[in-house]
Structures are given as structure tokens and as C-alpha cells.
């Protein structure tokens, strides 16, 4: 029987790439996010390519604890035995000193990046324990390792994701459940478009004249954690583009030529 992967933030970027990667490796994928149309499109793409029961899409906002519980408890019977939880949904909003971030920006970053991870884990991990198998993978960031001007709150949330990952590993000490973090560096997705409220020109400058990771590169790192032998727990994989050496240290121009 194929393993089941439950993905948050599967409607775009790293989440969509991970879904495609898992499906092509024979996993079945539960696709969740808020954008139902995009989820449905990915669901039908994967079911056409890999067989009718490959993907199951369901709308879920990770900031709504009750909705998270209802969605996970309400999964069809043959989708309930989640083997891998990919806590991927996340975002940064704006790039200003933390005291200039609006209350809405602060709340959204904390709610999605920290509380969302906790809400989904508490709804999924007990089932993994009952079944005696499972793997939780949280998407961290290089921003979980350092801080940069304008990114205080986002960086703090990603530091929290690493603490939550280490803590969950300890909470599950001695059980068969594995816990990993995959921490990407600069990755070309809709991340900057969301951060700059749809300002495509500004978002494009983030990836200009350099060679960022693709969402597929990050999906490969996620797959590495999952496909490691059962006796191996990858605690964290920090994956950056070759041109990057810190959150704000990205080489451009000559250094990125030919990649
Ligand atoms: P993206 O292309 O903007 O995708 C973000 C995903 O999160 C979307 O599917 C979005 O779906 C979902 N999401 C946002 N708010 C949500 C909510 N309240 N409930 C459920 N889903 C929600 O960005 P990405 O780069 O793939 O980001 C994925 C993860 O990688 C994030 O945790 C991010 O912090 C991390 N990361 C990204 C980079 C980078 O450079 N791109 C680097 C390091 C780490 P809906 O809008 O449809 O809900």
C-alpha cells in the first residue's frame, strides 16, 4: 500500500513541487491550502498522471484550529492513515523594522508559521503514534538561523519552527515517529510576491541576476529525509543555492553565471 503524505500549502511553490515529487515516487498526497481552485487543478493533474487515487484535495486554513481538526478527522477512510506530514504553509509579510509591522502582519506570520505548524501536528501525530509509524517534516528557513533587517518577525517565526522541530523530536523520543526540518535558502516561488503584496517588479528583484533554488530542489531535499533508512532521522537539512552564504548574502552577476 502506498504511503500517504499530508501537505499544507500545496497550492503553490515548494508545497506543489513536493506533491509532484511524492506522487512521482509512488506516494499518495493530500493537498491542502486555502486556494481551492489551484488545489483542484493539481489534484486532477496528479490523478491523471499517476492514477485516480494519487491525490486528494481539501481546502484548509492552518490558522483555524477547529477547521484543521475537522478536515483531518473528516478525511475519507482510505486517506486517514497519514505516514508523512509536511508542514510547509508559511509566509513573510512586508520588510520593515518590526515595530513598523502592522498588527495584522504580526498576527498572520505568527498564526501561519508557528500556530499553524502546532495545530496540524496535534491533529496528525496521535494517529501516527496509534499506527506506530510516521514522519513529520517542518519547513524552516535560513531565516531560522540568522536574522536580517526587515525580517525580524519572519525570522523569529522560523527560529520557532526549528525549536518546535527539536522539541517534537524529544516529545516523541523512543517512538517510531521521525521528525525533520528542511530549511531552504533563497527559493524562487511566490514567496516574495506574497511578501510585497503582489508587487511583481519588487518581487523579481529578489531573484534577479542570481541563481536561487527552485521549488523542485527543495522537494528533493524533503524526499531525501523521507527516503533515508527507517533507522535514520535527519534532524535538519539546510539547503541553500551555491550563490548564498547567509540570509542576505547572495552573490549576483558573475558568481551566478553558467548555473
Ligand atoms: P509560496 O509559493 O508563497 O507558497 C506558500 C504556500 O503557503 C501556498 O500554498 C499558500 O496557499 C500557503 N498558505 C499561506 N497561508 C496559508 C494558510 N493560512 N493556510 C494554509 N496554507 C497557507 O511560498 P513557498 O516559498 O513555497 O513557501 C513554502 C514554505 O517555504 C514556507 O514555510 C516558507 O516560509 C518557506 N521558505 C521559503 C523560502 C523561499 O525563499 N521561497 C525560503 C525559506 C523557507 P494559499 O494561499 O492557497 O493558502
Brief digest:
By secondary structure, this protein is of the alpha/beta class.
Characterization of the model:
A 7-stranded parallel sheet has the order 3-2-1-4-5-6-9, with helices on both faces. A two-stranded parallel sheet has the order 7-8. The mean pLDDT is 97. It is globular, with a radius of gyration of 18 Å. By secondary structure, it is an alpha/beta fold. Strand 5, helix 5 and strand 6 form a beta-alpha-beta unit. It has 8 helices and 11 strands. The protein has a single domain, classed as NAD(P)-binding Rossmann-like Domain (Rossmann fold, 3-Layer(aba) Sandwich). The site of NADP nicotinamide-adenine-dinucleotide phosphate has 28 residues, from helix 1 and helix 6.
Distinctive features:
single chain; 259 residues; Rossmann fold; 7-stranded parallel beta sheet; two-stranded parallel ribbon; binds NADP nicotinamide-adenine-dinucleotide phosphate
Note the topology.
Blueprint lengths: L3 E5 L4 H12 L3 E6 L2 H15 L4 E5 L5 H9 L10 E4 L15 H29 L3 E5 L12 H20 L6 E7 L2 E2 L2 H5 L4 H8 L5 E2 H13 L8 E4 L4 E3 L2 E2 L9
Parallel strand pairs: 1-2, 1-4, 2-3, 4-5, 5-6, 6-9, 7-8
Antiparallel strand pairs: 10-11
Helix pairs in contact: 1-8, 3-4, 4-5
Written as H for each helix and E for each strand, in order along the chain, the element string is EHEHEHEHEHEEHHEHEEE
- Class from secondary-structure proportions: alpha/beta
Overall 3D shape: globular
Write out the strand line-up for the largest beta sheet, numbering strands in chain order: 3-2-1-4-5-6-9
Task: Give the biggest beta sheet.
Answer: 7 strands, parallel
How much of the sequence lies in strands comes to 15-25%
CATH architecture: 3-Layer(aba) Sandwich
Computed over alpha carbons, the radius of gyration is 18 Å
Strand segment count: 11
- Which parts are unreliable, with pLDDT below 50 for 5 consecutive residues or more? none
> How many angstroms does the end-to-end distance come to?
39 Å
CATH homologous superfamily designation:
NAD(P)-binding Rossmann-like Domain
| Ligand inventory | NADP nicotinamide-adenine-dinucleotide phosphate
Q: Output the CATH class name.
A: Alpha Beta
Number of helices, where a helix is a run of at least 4 consecutive DSSP H or I residues:
8
The name CATH uses for the topology is Rossmann fold
Helix content: 40-55%
Residue-averaged pLDDT: 97
- How many domains? The number is 1
Amino acid at each position: 500500500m502506498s504511503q500517504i503524505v499530508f501537505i499544507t500549502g500545496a497550492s503553490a511553490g515548494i508545497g506543489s513541487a513536493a506533491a509532484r515529487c511524492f506522487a512521482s515516487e509512488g506516494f499518495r498526497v493530500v493537498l491542502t491550502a486555502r486556494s481551492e481552485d489551484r488545489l483542484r487543478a493539481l489534484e486532477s493533474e496528479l490523478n491523471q498522471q499517476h492514477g485516480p487515487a494519487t491525490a486528494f484535495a481539501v481546502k484548509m486554513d492552518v490558522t483555524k484550529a477547529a477547521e484543521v481538526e475537522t478536515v483531518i478527522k473528516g478525511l475519507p477512510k482510505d486517506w486517514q492513515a497519514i505516514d508523512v506530514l509536511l508542514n510547509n504553509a508559511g509566509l513573510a509579510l512586508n520588510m520593515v523594522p518590526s515595530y513598523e509591522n502592522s498588527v495584522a502582519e504580526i498576527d498572520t506570520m505568527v498564526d501561519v508559521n508557528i500556530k499553524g505548524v502546532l495545530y496540524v501536528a496535534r491533529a496528525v501525530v496521535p494517529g501516527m503514534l496509534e499506527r506506530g509509524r510516521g514522519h513529520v517534516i517542518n519547513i524552516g528557513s535560513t531565516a531560522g538561523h540568522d536574522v536580517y533587517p526587515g525580517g525580524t518577525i519572519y525570522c523569529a517565526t522560523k527560529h520557532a519552527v526549528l525549536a518546535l522541530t527539536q522539541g517534537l523530536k524529544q516529545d516523541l523520543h523512543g517512538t517510531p515517529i521521525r521528525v525533520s526540518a528542511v530549511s531552504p535558502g533563497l527559493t524562487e516561488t511566490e514567496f516574495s510576491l506574497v511578501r510585497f503584496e503582489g508587487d511583481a517588479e519588487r518581487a523579481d528583484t529578489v531573484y534577479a541576476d542570481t541563481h536561487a533554488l527552485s521549488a523542485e530542489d527543495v522537494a528533493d531535499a524533503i524526499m531525501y529525509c523521507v527516503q533515508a533508512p527507517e533507522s535514520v532521522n535527519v534532524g535538519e537539512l539546510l539547503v541553500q543555492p551555491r550563490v548564498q552564504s547567509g540570509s542576505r548574502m547572495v552573490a549576483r552577476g558573475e558568481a551566478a553565471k553558467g548555473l
